[in-house]
Amino acid sequence: MIERPFRLRHYMVSHTRLILHSFAQPDEPESFSVLFGGVQAMHLHTRVYNPLIIEQADEATRAGMLAFAAIPERIQDRMLCLTLPDSQGGAGSIVCYFASVFARPRDQSGGVDARAFDEARHIQTIGPR
After folding, report:
1. Which residues pair with 96 in a beta bridge?
2. Residue 120's CB: how many other CB atoms inside 10 A?
3. Three-class SS of residue 25?
4. Where is average pLDDT lowest: 5-14, 59-68, 103-112, 120-129?
């Protein structure tokens, strides 16, 4: 969980990449981005996740997400099924290969290209079970 507001920053269908971003506030030295790679399906329930909570889906929810995304059985074990609960009681969902959290100094918070993540501080990567 990251106690800051996160918004959709970038989604590129051709590269199956989704980025949720939280800009640094005046009293915060860093901005944060979550890069979801290999996105096969998603449903974002709200415009702002505050705080951002990323959870692995339980077995029943996972099965439904994989069916919705039409993931072939032979590769289902490689997929990461994540839920993003929000403060209104709903939950977004993302089916992807991985999710990585990055931090960047305030003055580097705007970029969404690959170089921006090469220069960022890697915090954590979540992969399939």
Report:
1. 80
2. 22
3. coil
4. 103-112
Query: Is 23:47 a contact under the CB 8 Å cutoff?
Result: no
Six-digit token pair at 43?
Answer: 């449903």
d(CA 111, CA 125): 20
Give residue-wise pLDDT tens across range 42-79: 998 777 888 999 999 999 999 999 999 999 999 999 99
HEC string of 49-75?
ECCECCEECCHHHHHHHHHHCCCCHHH
Q: Output the CA angle 121-93-65, nearest 5 degrees.
A: 125
CA of 98: how far to CAs of 8, 60, 80, 93, 106, in Å? 17, 20, 6, 13, 25
Q: How many Å apart are CA 123 and CA 129, to the nearest integer?
A: 19
Strands 6-12 and 48-49: antiparallel
pLDDT in tens, 8-34: 888 877 778 999 999 888 888 888 999
Say what the pTM is: 0.88
